[in-house]
Amino acid sequence: MLATALLALVLGAPATSTAGLGDSFAAALEVLRGRPARARVLLAPAGRIPDDPAALLVLSCAALDAGDLAEAGRLAGRLRSLRPDAVEGQLLVALLAERRARPRGDWIAQAMSALARVSSPLDGLPLLDVDGTQLAHWQRREPDALPDVAGAKLGAADAFLVGWAWTTRLGDGADPALRKAALRLAGSDERLLVQLAVLDVLEPGAAANPMTPDVERARRAALDRIAREPLGRLRALALRSGPERAPLSDEEVAGFEAAVVGLDGPLLARFYEELLPIFERADPVLGTDAAWNAAVRFALSGWMSANGLAERVPDSTEGRERLAAAWVRYADVLGREGILLFDMLGAVALYRAGALLRDSSLSGRSDIVRRRSEELRATAMCVPVVVARLPLRSLRQAWARERVRERQLAEQGAHLGLSCPDPLKRPSGRE
Fold this sequence. Notes:
The protein is mainly α. Helices cover about 65% and strands about 0% of the residues. It is built from 23 helices and no strands. It starts with a helix and ends in a 16-residue tail after the last helix. About 45% of the residues are buried.
């Protein structure tokens, strides 16, 4: 289910339009863009405090962002009096208590402590579902649903990465403009992520994306450019792989070993760090999630390439031992990501190594990693719950910095006794 949740987020990028939506939603976006004065003009003209719970939520978050705890408390109290059942009001009151005690404290730690005081953090519908509304708007493909690439003054390659992350597929083929950009950038930009996106856009498909000579040349150029990177070597190895059920050759085993040895450090964190400033320029509100989802897709590309070799086994005992050792090393690489999805993939890698060697100790290690990841899964969703429920810019900025520590944060949350339901299991009344 974790992989399903992730892929649902990855395949659905958020939008940025506010057309036809209420003042509370528009004001929430202003707060998240760092323009709280505009939010107050929309919701509290002439200083009048509204009676709308969603408006009170936005104004309270704006005051909390500004460090005006007294005003934030007054507005949160009004919200609680109108909607005592609303989770957002409970979260605000608890978070305000944390900020009063430690005004310069860590936002993420304080959000988890606040959430620990809320018995059912997903009870009822959100007062203001900013991210869900944006996602629905994007899925309707409304004209202004893409980020402001022109306004952000992005270069061609950066604009291509943003377009790749946000743009849907048209039928069975790539978006024509994106495809044209991919053909121009293939092999010409040195960055690994640009070339991986080029390969994704130019993946052979149905009639809308045929393998024409120019596409074939562009794909070769992109593959040549990334061949110096371990992730690129994995991709090339998978593309050159033999028949599906044929034994894995010594050359292929050696290629897998070399690629895995070259993988160092958390790839996801590296990719996210590269993408985040680009995507936040294009969309200051939702660029964080778009950058994260794109970084996950890039980091998963290595696994997808390695996975293509999984059904093939070397004929020789030595070959199986070498392949098993490479899978164990790859499991360690995946574990260094610090992300539960990659821990689960690491458990699969360990299981494969155990099956190759008929080694029950490796299978046992796989089970330990898998069970721990499953135990932490619900806890890992707790901080995103608070981030989604509260249009609080300071908290979102902190989450943008800290989300690469998912496993560590989940362990901290587990220590506090936190547990949150699967994010895809929405209340039945929600559209």
